[in-house]
Amino acid sequence: MILELDCGNSFIKWRVIHAADAVIEGGGIVDSDQALLAEVAALASVRLTGCRIVSVRSEEETDALCSLIARAFTVQARVAQPAREMAGVRNGYDDYQRLGMDRWLAALGAFHLAKGACLVIDLGTAAKADFVAADGEHLGGYICPGMPLMRSQLRTHTRRIRYDDASAERALTSLSPGRSTVEAVERGCVLMLQGFARTQLDQARALWGDTFTVFLTGGDAPLVREAVPLARVVPDLVFVGLAMACPLD
Ligand SMILES: Nc1ncnc2c1ncn2[C@@H]1O[C@H](COP(=O)(O)OP(=O)(O)OP(=O)(O)O)[C@@H](O)[C@H]1O
Ligand SMILES: CC(C)(CO)[C@@H](O)C(=O)NCCC(=O)O
Ligand SMILES: [K+]
């Protein structure tokens, strides 16, 4: 079985798949390396034969995680590396090594699934959009603060915005104008996220008319789902690209 890891800025998404047929044996989201080891170890009957990782963390942090995995499961992790071109997609950055690996792999996965022009909207700690043309040219993209960053900036830089996570969740049962601080902030930030997604869609239409596929991924994808009804929601899009960039046998 193969352990797959997507190390974002706030969370690590993991899953274990069968090497032969990619059937998913288990998975989860954790907020630390130690929690990851505990959850993977707790998965009964797991004998890992390989591990592949995509990370947007520092090289030191990623190396440390690889060492932990090597010690705990005796497998050598393969870490996805930047490329100028892969699987028919050409990296659009002036310096291809600077493009976030999560964005690059999501773009590879999306182009593979769409087999044509596509827009990827990935809503995590940061909100990202990437454009890949029908000929595989990655045109570039956008990075904005995601929901967690918008929220924490408001909390950090104002004196009177204070609320707990439970009331934040309750506030999102509707998007009508807020009648309390928590409603005003939470709904306002969701509308920002939806506005981001709609603007990307407008750009894609201007470029490609109606012939493109929109993919929605990342932990906060559900918050904009209704704003982008055409989108294919693919929570594991980065893993699709990871398998392409790091084949194991
Ligand atoms: N089960 C979950 N665990 C943690 N976060 C979740 C979960 N479900 C939804 N979320 C939301 O997903 C968001 C984080 O998304 P994601 O995990 O894609 O971020 P990330 O990969 O750490 O960030 P980035 O991709 O920008 O580096 C948070 O705002 C959180 O509220
Ligand atoms: C934008 C983030 C932080 C999102 O996870 C990541 O893709 C990253 O660190 N990218 C490097 C900067 C860039 O993509 O231009
Ligand atoms: K991510």
TrEMBL record:
<comment type="subunit">
    <text>Homodimer.</text>
</comment>
<dbReference type="InterPro" id="IPR043129">
    <property type="entry name" value="ATPase_NBD"/>
</dbReference>
<keyword id="KW-0067">ATP-binding</keyword>
<dbReference type="GO" id="GO:0005524">
    <property type="term" value="F:ATP binding"/>
</dbReference>
<keyword id="KW-0479">Metal-binding</keyword>
<keyword id="KW-0808">Transferase</keyword>
<feature type="binding site">
    <location>
        <begin position="100"/>
        <end position="103"/>
    </location>
    <ligand>
        <name>substrate</name>
    </ligand>
</feature>
<dbReference type="GO" id="GO:0005737">
    <property type="term" value="C:cytoplasm"/>
</dbReference>
<feature type="active site" description="Proton acceptor">
    <location>
        <position position="102"/>
    </location>
</feature>
<feature type="binding site">
    <location>
        <position position="125"/>
    </location>
    <ligand>
        <name>ATP</name>
    </ligand>
</feature>
<feature type="binding site">
    <location>
        <position position="122"/>
    </location>
    <ligand>
        <name>K(+)</name>
    </ligand>
</feature>
<keyword id="KW-0173">Coenzyme A biosynthesis</keyword>
<dbReference type="GO" id="GO:0046872">
    <property type="term" value="F:metal ion binding"/>
</dbReference>
<dbReference type="Pfam" id="PF03309">
    <property type="entry name" value="Pan_kinase"/>
</dbReference>
<keyword id="KW-0963">Cytoplasm</keyword>
<comment type="similarity">
    <text>Belongs to the type III pantothenate kinase family.</text>
</comment>
<comment type="function">
    <text>Catalyzes the phosphorylation of pantothenate (Pan), the first step in CoA biosynthesis.</text>
</comment>
<feature type="binding site">
    <location>
        <position position="93"/>
    </location>
    <ligand>
        <name>substrate</name>
    </ligand>
</feature>
<protein>
    <recommendedName>
        <fullName>Type III pantothenate kinase</fullName>
        <ecNumber>2.7.1.33</ecNumber>
    </recommendedName>
</protein>
<dbReference type="GO" id="GO:0004594">
    <property type="term" value="F:pantothenate kinase activity"/>
</dbReference>
<keyword id="KW-0418">Kinase</keyword>
<feature type="binding site">
    <location>
        <position position="181"/>
    </location>
    <ligand>
        <name>substrate</name>
    </ligand>
</feature>
<dbReference type="GO" id="GO:0015937">
    <property type="term" value="P:coenzyme A biosynthetic process"/>
</dbReference>
<feature type="binding site">
    <location>
        <begin position="6"/>
        <end position="13"/>
    </location>
    <ligand>
        <name>ATP</name>
    </ligand>
</feature>
<keyword id="KW-0630">Potassium</keyword>
<dbReference type="InterPro" id="IPR004619">
    <property type="entry name" value="Type_III_PanK"/>
</dbReference>
<keyword id="KW-0547">Nucleotide-binding</keyword>
<comment type="pathway">
    <text>Cofactor biosynthesis; coenzyme A biosynthesis; CoA from (R)-pantothenate: step 1/5.</text>
</comment>
